[in-house]
Design brief:
The chain is mainly beta. The protein is built from five helices and 61 strands. It starts with a helix and ends in a 21-residue tail after the last helix.
């Protein structure tokens, strides 16, 4: 029962909620003769949204009807005239709120006012009226201007200071506060300046906040009832009519401040006379470079009394530039302090004239000059402030440059006769006039390709010099210039040169130079004043094709395995200047013995600097078995010691001719290939064959796969100790032979086994089971082990001299190994697990059923009692 009490209380409050009528808290204090507004608001009601209101008034006795929103006959007779005249009226602010308005409240209006709302609710709930007490006090507020300042019109100059005073006091019987606000009218509406609020705080308007914080606008209390507005440094916007606005405030019953009345009085009319200022300069001027520029700024003003002028000269390159974009030349402030400059001076000729002198003008001084003047007046505290600023019209100044006069000639001091010859061009400056010590010359080099057609070719910049002779190179020959193949230099004051150390076909064409004259300005900067272009000079030479002939000669016509093979290569060339040759020995072997897919093996090379290098020679037992040497400048000899049967093939000399290039580098000219020299051994030795065999090429996963590599010999019989084999096993993981073979394992003739890396669980082993049989075993076969398998054998035969000879490599035909999945073994364990789980689940189900029927679901059955009667004997019957 205890926990239901809060719930019932909440339910009771929900049902008891009803209409609420609100009026301000009592008492309302109002001043006699002022307009009084008493609001009334209703909420939480039923019925239409627009509610009606009735107002009644009482002075301690019965309530008298004043006015109603819905009944025009509601008003009592004693108030009918005031209601008809509009002195008392209702003003609806919303559907649920009205305001009782009394135009000029009088002491007889002091009393209680009741706001009543007729019921539109389904049930009577809440309050339907509210009462507020209104207290009317006498008007004790007086506002006037200061008697000491009786003048209502003042004429001031811009920048002057002035004060205005306002006297305000109250004799109210209540505890009230005054708020004083100074306002200005220089347009259609009054603008607030500064207020002393009823809470004792100063509140400037946004327009005067900055001037208030700087102290130019202040509000002070001189006495208990005098309020002074002080304005320093008057501006044109301060002109207008000033008034003092005083409002009286009282703290209401709800502790909030309420304004009960407001009065104002116009204090004075202030006229601000702006200071007239005219700034004049000369008209457009033209001067010659190195002369002096003389400009005068004349100012006139109607200002009287104490003042000072400040003048600033500005310079811009365009007449449309703003003052912030202009450059300050010189200035003189109101204390007559002049900023100094070496070449520019500013002098104060008289009170109204300021003289600007620019010495030794240059072309960079061309532009627009103007001066800005400001009038400064003193403040009462001794500081100075600006009252007016004016800027003159810009003066256009044109400085005519002293253009130097000169000619440029270009000639070729060295011309190439063929490629790789040097070429040199000289660009000379001649017949110079009007050049001074502040003039320097730079050069730019250009190249133009000559075409037989009429196509337009763009000139390409090779290099250019800045005013400080810094070289800027173009993109076309940047690398050659950095390598020193193209050199730019200045041999004399009037001579520039371009040298190409080693010319090429791409250097053919027209060349010309452009010489620029630079003049130094006062700020030590250099400005280009003129440029002259030379006539083009053509660089050309007759082109002949390079020719290169290579002849290979076999020194011994017949030899057998184990002997030394020797051949020479003789080279002859034409149209190549001081050539050097690099030689490469290549061999074209049979497909079984090739080391390169295209059938060509690179054996040994010798470059143009006679440096020998082994290329694709991989026989570690014969690292020193090949030699290439330079016999003469154009003859080279190749030797191969202890030749073997596997060395059979066609041998050639591949020769490259090189000519000297730039920076000590060599440039490739042309390539040549010699005639082939064949190595063909005359032998009647044994012939080896190889085959692959497997008893069971189809295996199941996890089983062992055996493969045999069998080597047979035909012809001459050999002892087992006189022969050995290198055996390698490969696999192609596809049904067709269209993939690259994968090495499985290898066994060299010394018995060392090498296995390739595998990425699955199976493993391989390779062993020699007889002198000519090699067995590969794949342990634990997986799906990845299927495919074509073959072996590659390299026989080695020992000669009668005890030297081992390598025979050509032989490869067996592939055999396909299939790997199948053992279905029974694959399903055995899942099947056994499934049967076991099914058996366990069945037994568990039976056990649960038995227990449920035995103990949980058993019902007691009441047997019907039957009458037991004994059978009577037949005798008794």
């Amino acid at each position: 029962m205890g926990h239901r009490a809060p719930f019932l209380l909440l339910l009771l409050l929900a049902f008891c909620k009803g209409r609420i009528v609100r009026v301000p808290k009592s008492p309302l204090i109002r001043v006699e003769g002022t307009e009084t507004v008493i609001p009334c608001h209703v909420s939480d009601y039923d019925g239409p949204s627009e509610q009606n209101f009735d107002w009644e008034f009482s002075q301690g006795t019965d309530f008298v009807r004043l006015v109603s929103t819905w009944d025009s006959t509601f008003t009592s007779q004693q108030y009918q005239e005031r209601v008809n005249n509009g002195e008392i009226m209702l003003r609806r602010s919303s559907n649920d709120a009205v305001e009782l308005l009394i135009r000029s409240i009088q002491p007889i209006d002091q009393g209680e006012y009741k706001c009543i709302t007729p019921s539109t609710d389904a049930t009577v709930q809440g309050n339907y009226d509210a009462t507020v007490q209104v207290k009317v006090i006498a008007d004790g507020l007086t506002v006037s201007g200061s008697k000491a300042r009786s003048s209502t019109s003042r004429k001031l100059s811009e920048g002057d200071s002035f004060e205005l005073r306002c006297v305000a006091s109250t004799t109210s019987s209540e505890h009230t506060h005054l708020q004083v606000t100074w306002e200005l009218k220089n347009g259609p509406a009054w603008q607030e300046i500064l207020s002393l609020t009823h809470q004792g705080t100063f509140q400037p308007s946004p327009e005067y906040k900055e001037r208030y914080l700087s102290g130019d606008v202040r509000l002070d209390t001189v006495a208990n009832d005098t309020y002074r507005l002080s304005v320093s440094q008057a501006l044109p916007v301060d002109q207008g009519i000033y008034r003092c606005l005083v409002s009286e405030w009282v703290k209401g019953a709800d502790s909030s401040w309420q304004k009960i009345q407001e009065k104002n009085v116009e204090i004075a009319s202030v006229v601000i006379q702006q200071t007239a200022l005219d700034v004049l300069t000369a008209s457009n001027i033209s001067v010659t470079e190195r002369d002096s520029l003389d400009l005068t700024c004349n100012i006139t003003t109607d200002r009287s009394g104490i003042f000072q002028a400040a003048v600033t000269w500005y310079f811009t390159e365009s007449p449309d530039d703003t003052l912030s974009d202009a450059r300050v030349l010189l200035r003189v402030n109101h204390d007559s302090v002049i900023s100094s400059s070496t070449l520019i001076s500013l002098s104060h000729v008289d009170r109204n004239s300021y003289h600007l002198l620019v010495r030794d003008v240059g072309v960079e001084d061309s532009g627009y000059y103007f001066c800005q003047a400001a009038i400064w007046v003193p403040k009462r505290n001794g500081s100075w402030h600006t009252v007016v600023v004016k800027t003159s019209s810009p003066v256009s100044v044109a400085v005519a440059a002293l253009e130097p006069d000169y000619q440029v000639f270009l000639n070729a001091s060295k011309t190439p006769k063929f490629s790789d010859d040097p070429a040199e061009l000289e660009c000379r400056i001649m017949n110079t006039q009007n050049t001074e010590e502040n003039t320097r010359f730079t050069v730019s080099w250009y190249y133009r390709m000559r075409l037989r057609s009429d196509d337009v070719v763009t000139d390409e910049l090779l290099a250019t010099m800045d005013a400080d002779w810094t070289l800027q190179v173009g993109d076309r020959n940047r690398q050659r210039i950095e390598n020193g193949e193209i050199i730019f230099s200045k041999r004399a004051v009037d001579t520039f040169s371009l040298r190409i150390q080693w010319t090429s076909e791409a250097d053919k064409g027209d060349y010309y130079c452009v010489v620029s004259a630079w003049s130094r300005h006062r700020n030590n900067s250099w400005v280009k004043s003129k440029h002259v272009t030379s006539a083009p000079v053509r660089i050309f030479w007759a082109t002949q094709d390079y020719t290169l002939t290579v002849e290979a000669v076999k020194l011994k016509s017949f030899f057998v395995a184990g002997h030394t093979f020797e051949m020479t290569c003789k080279v002859s060339s034409q149209n190549i200047k001081t050539p050097r040759y690099s030689v490469l020995i290549i061999a074209e072997k049979t497909p079984t013995g090739q080391s390169n897919p295209n059938g060509v093996t690179r054996i040994i090379s010798l470059n143009q600097d006679s440096v020998v290098r082994l290329e694709d020679w991989t026989d570690q037992a014969r690292v020193d078995g090949v030699v290439l040497e330079k016999v003469q400048e154009n003859e080279f000899r190749y030797r191969m010691y202890q030749t073997q049967i596997s060395d059979a093939g066609l041998y050639r000399c591949m020769v490259t001719a090189w000519s000297p290039g730039g920076g000590g580098m060599w440039r490739e000219a042309v390539n040549g290939l010699s005639n082939p020299i064949q190595i063909d051994f005359q032998t009647s030795g044994p012939v080896f064959n190889v085959s692959v065999h497997s008893d069971n090429p189809t295996v199941y996963q996890g089983e062992l796969a055996d493969l045999l590599c069998i080597v047979t010999i035909e012809g001459v019989a050999l002892e087992p100790d006189d022969m050995s084999f290198d055996v390698s096993w490969f696999a192609i993981r596809s049904f067709a032979l269209n993939r690259d073979p994968v090495l499985l394992a290898s066994l060299d003739r010394k018995g060392l086994v090498t296995q390739a890396k595998r990425n699955w669980s199976s493993d391989v082993s390779l062993e020699r089971i007889s002198p000519m049989e090699f067995r590969l075993r794949v342990h634990g076969c997986q799906d990845q082990d299927f495919g074509n398998h073959y072996c590659s054998v390299t026989p080695w035969v020992r000669s009668a001299k005890g030297v081992w000879q390598r025979e050509p490599e032989i490869t067996s035909k592939p055999i396909f190994i299939s790997v199948k999945m053992d279905v029974l073994n694959a399903l055995k364990y899942p099947l056994l697990i499934g049967i076991g789980l099914a058996t366990i689940i069945g037994l568990l189900s039976c056990l649960i059923g038995y227990c449920s029927s035995r103990w949980c679901c058993k019902k007691e059955v009441q047997e019907t009692k039957r009458e037991r009667r004994r059978l009577m004997s037949m005798e008794m019957d």
